[in-house]
Design a protein that fits this description.
single chain; Spore Coat Polysaccharide Biosynthesis Protein SpsA, Chain A; alpha/beta; two-stranded antiparallel ribbon
């Protein structure tokens, strides 16, 4: 019998790449087409079977998130909140969820990542799993190398390599057993003084416990003006075309919608189904 799965959304950071928008609110509350950004990772985790979700945020504007989402009851979720007082990296933010996770497995989603795939975790019991997407510019991301003749066995992960060993980008969605917190306690801060999630993942790789799943549909982060526009356009295209399997825009595509020509219904909690 599979362990219970809890969810964690990491919604901290200063959002400096989206300044001045983030001067007035948390980045994860900015609109992506017709919903606040944080609605999308909430939906992703809910679709994965998580009903109990912890949101980790910085001190600034954390009240805005609470005012929007409340207890999560209207969305069929049970939401909890934790404050990351100082920037310490993704792995540090995850460490704050140890008591919340307890003996459960945990699905972790970065609050600015938006996924179109339906993620199936029925076969996950222990270890760790990352979710990969083929990209044309892997040097901008963490890159996974797979064992020869294997579609799921990860043998290395390298952060922003100059010479990538594959074109498989590590997206901002991870699933771990509760041993992840022991790994985090053994981390050493990186050169930028943070606890890196790539180092956590490589502990699992070292111990032969890391698997992966390749995404079939589109994925985007929304942490820059360009990617925020791209994410909004991808969501709008899916909704306006009523297409179950939207085609990912090709490189060089011009994204419509910057002028607000896409209308939207008022935001309702019921939009998370």
């Amino acid at each position: 019998m599979a362990k219970r799965l809890k969810g964690v959304i990491l919604a901290g950071g200063t959002g400096s790449r989206l300044y001045p928008l983030t001067k007035v609110t948390n980045k994860h509350l900015l609109p992506v087409y017709d919903k606040p950004m944080i609605f999308y990772p909430l939906q992703t985790l809910k679709n994965m079977g998580c009903k109990d979700i912890l949101i980790v945020s910085g001190r600034e504007h954390c009240g805005d998130i609470l005012n929007l989402l409340g207890s999560g009851r209207d969305m069929g979720l049970k939401l909890s909140y934790e404050i990351q007082d100082d920037a310490g990296g993704i792995a540090h933010a995850l460490s704050l969820a140890e008591r919340f996770v307890g003996t459960s497995n945990v699905a972790v989603c970065l609050g600015d990542n938006i996924f179109d795939d339906e993620i199936n975790l029925q076969d996950f019991e222990s270890g760790a799993r990352i979710f990969l997407k083929e990209v044309h510019d892997p040097e901008r991301f963490g890159v996974a190398e797979l064992e020869k003749d294997s579609d799921c066995k990860v043998i290395s992960i390298e952060e922003k390599p100059k010479k990538p060993k594959s074109n498989l980008c590590v997206t901002g969605l991870y699933v771990y057993d509760n041993k992840v917190f022991n790994y985090i306690k053994n981390l050493t801060p990186s050169d930028r003084g943070e606890l890196e999630i790539t180092d956590v993942n490589n502990f699992y790789v070292r111990d032969g416990l890391m698997t992966c799943q390749k995404l079939k549909s589109w994925w985007s982060d929304a942490g820059t003006f360009e990617s925020l526009l791209k994410a909004s356009s991808l969501v709008a295209n899916k909704k306006l075309c009523a297409c179950d399997t939207p085609v990912e825009p090709k490189r060089g595509t011009t994204y419509a919608g910057a002028s607000g020509e896409f209308g939207g219904d008022p935001i309702r909690h019921s939009q998370i189904k």
